[in-house]
UniProtKB/TrEMBL annotation:
Gene Ontology cellular-component annotations: membrane
Protein name: Major facilitator superfamily (MFS) profile domain-containing protein
Recorded family membership: Belongs to the major facilitator superfamily. Sugar transporter (TC 2.A.1.1) family.
UniProt cross-references to SUPFAM superfamilies, sorted A to Z: MFS general substrate transporter
TM region positions: 26-44, 56-77, 84-102, 114-134, 146-165, 270-288, 342-366, 378-398, 404-427
Domain Major facilitator superfamily (MFS) profile residues, every copy: 1-431
Superkingdom classification of source: Eukaryota
Source organism of this protein record: Ephemerocybe angulata
Pfam families per UniProt: Sugar_tr (PF00083)
PANTHER family noted in UniProt: MAJOR FACILITATOR SUPERFAMILY (MFS) PROFILE DOMAIN-CONTAINING PROTEIN-RELATED, PLASTIDIC GLUCOSE TRANSPORTER 4
Localization per Swiss-Prot or TrEMBL: Membrane
Molecular function GO terms recorded: carbohydrate:proton symporter activity
Record keyword Metal-binding present: no
Topology of the protein relative to the lipid bilayer: Multi-pass membrane protein
């Protein structure tokens, strides 16, 4: 935006202000650096202050970073520091929110609620594109202060809204706060505190957590230990995040303007962003149902094949029909209607397929794959992996595409085929399992390709233990009378 460039750019020999590549890199990379650090740092606050308290802390940090950016006048140092601070909050919340959702949601709805997390992110991005489109022609600093400053609203919603939500019952039980956990379980299930269901569920959770937590306090090294197959689970979480970033969809956001121009479109880059954002929102909606009907494995494998096909067609057709034969200016003004239409069509289909499958599913898997003792640390490693490769992609993809053009899509084609193979051989199905049953599945050594038909035994053992406890304490009679149960 012109006002932004005038305030934070450099004066060129022609008397016009411009943003040098080095300044653009600093402004961009400091946010990515913040997200990487924040994703790892939240592991310390999640255990110490709880999931709810940790969300409160990092929402405050994010909001402070936004305030620093919004109040900047001419200092690029202040702008980049503000972006780094805001990035700390973004990275931390990207790990804590799936963690919190996974621990508070019932198993039948956990996948849907974690997809809803991704849908809200996509809707937020889409709204930001619309706001950019609406403000970019304002001649004053409002052109960029409005989009940046509006983030204060979302930060305030997080800061105030979390006060009305309960703490994770698993965290409460893990820290010895059983009475509070019973209250939360009752709230989450919509039943009175003295309902027998509360004691049954809490006892089952206690049994599962006790099985998980034998051995004392967890360390970062334990995430890669052979205990309960944690190394495999951590690597699965990190690999899914790695493949997600190299699906190729983000490339269209970073470099789509140039590509679409070479395809012959005269659309404004802001309009292109809005179109891609709308496609992402529409694509994420079906995932709310597919994540629980198709499951995690099938969604990932089908998505990998669909996106691979889109990358292959767009890459080959784009190279053969839009390959540069002259200067960059000639390339951008050259029009090959058939090739350009194919490239645009498959780019949109690629983004849509990603939104249905690989956009939300790795986050769902990350939020439900780890035992309580290492969950914050393992999710931190997965989230940090996502932000690390996000930074590398945004930094290197335009430079690679400038040299080989549409053929860069063949790199993503190869990564998607790798992702399909990896999911088939290493990613088990976690649909319909409690977090404790996911732990049992990994330790039982079931093959991923047989995991869809695997039946857990932990819940049965926990229920038998609860029944024996009820019998020993005469609890069967108490179940008849809520008054006696409360007493």
């Amino acid at each position: 935006m012109p006002d932004f460039i005038r305030r934070f750019g450099e004066l060129g020999p022609d008397g016009e202000y411009f943003l040098s590549s080095s300044r653009q890199s600093i402004i961009t990379s400091l946010l990515s650096a913040g997200t990487f650090v924040g994703a790892l740092a939240q592991a310390f606050t999640s255990d110490r202050f709880g999931r709810r308290g940790s969300i409160l802390i990092w929402s405050g940090i994010f909001t402070a970073g936004v305030a620093v950016q919004t109040g900047t006048e001419y200092s690029i140092v202040q702008m980049t520091i503000g972006r780094f601070i805001a990035g700390l909050g973004v990275g931390a919340l990207s790990a804590i929110v799936p963690l919190y959702n996974g621990e508070t949601a019932p198993k039948a709805l956990r996948g849907t609620l974690l997809v809803l997390y991704q849908l809200q992110i996509i809707v937020g991005i889409f709204l930001s594109y619309i706001i950019d489109l609406a403000t970019h022609k304002i001649p004053s600093s409002a052109s960029w202060r409005v989009p940046v400053g509006l983030q204060l609203v979302w930060g305030t919603i997080m800061l105030s809204g979390i006060l009305f939500l309960p703490e994770s019952p698993r965290h409460l039980l893990g820290t010895g706060r059983r009475e509070e956990a019973c209250t939360v379980v009752a709230q989450l299930n919509g039943v009175p505190l003295d309902d027998p269901l509360v004691q049954d569920l809490v006892s089952e959770l206690e049994y599962g957590i006790a099985q998980e937590n034998e051995g004392g306090k967890a360390t970062w090294a334990e995430c890669f230990s052979s205990r309960n197959m944690l190394w495999k689970r951590t690597m699965n979480g990190m690999m899914l995040q790695f493949v997600q970033q190299l699906n190729g969809q983000n490339f269209y956001y970073y470099y789509g303007d140039t590509f679409f121009k070479s395809a012959g479109t005269n659309l404004d880059p802001y309009v292109i962003q809005v179109i891609l954002g709308a496609v992402s929102v529409i694509g994420t909606v079906p995932a709310l149902r597919l994540i629980e009907t198709w499951g995690r494995r099938r969604s990932l494998m089908v998505g990998a094949l669909l996106e691979a096909g889109c990358s292959l067609v767009a890459g080959v057709v784009g190279h053969l029909t839009l390959a540069p034969t002259g200067t960059a200016k000639e390339l951008l003004t050259k029009r090959n209607k058939s090739g350009g239409d194919v490239l645009i069509a498959f780019a949109v289909l690629h983004v849509f397929s990603f939104s249905v499958f690989w956009g939300p599913t790795p986050w769902v898997y990350l939020g439900e794959s780890f035992p309580l003792r290492v969950r914050p640390k393992a999710i931190a490693l997965g989230s940090a992996t996502n932000w690390f490769w996000n930074f590398l992609l945004s930094f290197f993809a335009p430079r690679i595409a400038a040299k080989i053009g549409p053929l860069i899509l063949l790199i993503f084609f190869g990564m998607l085929l790798f992702g399909y193979v990896y999911v088939y051989f290493f990613i088990p199905e976690t649909k319909g399992l409690t977090l404790e049953e996911v732990d049992e599945m990994y330790t039982s050594g079931v093959k991923p390709w047989n995991s869809s038909t695997w039946k857990p035994h932990l819940g049965e053992k926990a229920r038998q233990r609860v029944a024996e406890m009820h019998k020993a304490e005469g609890y069967e009679d108490k179940r008849v009378s809520p008054t006696e149960s409360t007493a």
